[in-house]
Design goal:
rod-shaped; mainly alpha; Arc Repressor Mutant, subunit A
Amino acid sequence: MAAHLPPHLTPAPRFEPSSVVELRVLTRLPSRCQNAVVNWRAFIDFLHRWQWLVAAIAAGVPTVYYGPKKLLETWDWYVDRFRDRSILEVLRDVRIPKKLAPFNPGGPGEASPTIISIAKHGSYSVGDLADILNRSHRSIGKSVRRLRAQGKIELDHGGFKLKG
């Protein structure tokens, strides 16, 4: 009977079960799981191409955040160790400047005012410290400013002495 009907009225052929499964597979949208795999693969490919940039950013961010503070702490330690500590040692141990040791301005019985100031008050001028340590006045001045800012020395009788 189906053979006598016009072609536009003939029923569609029945699909076999295997063809129905193939049709569903062809027309089904990809699942979320498949999209995630595709995105991960794209991300991994990106990492393989740009891994040097990712590594540089991962190393650079902590360096920029923590680096300047550590750099300044290290610089302060070096300045204290190699510049300022020698001045504190001179102030602790009373030392006479080399240029003044043999010099007596008032004669054999009198000491110079600088030696009196060092012996009596324990205060040294910038020039005295420069002579003892063989450093420039400018270098000693910078160290004295740092030590005064830290509260380790104070100005006393025209010179500097240990605080306390």
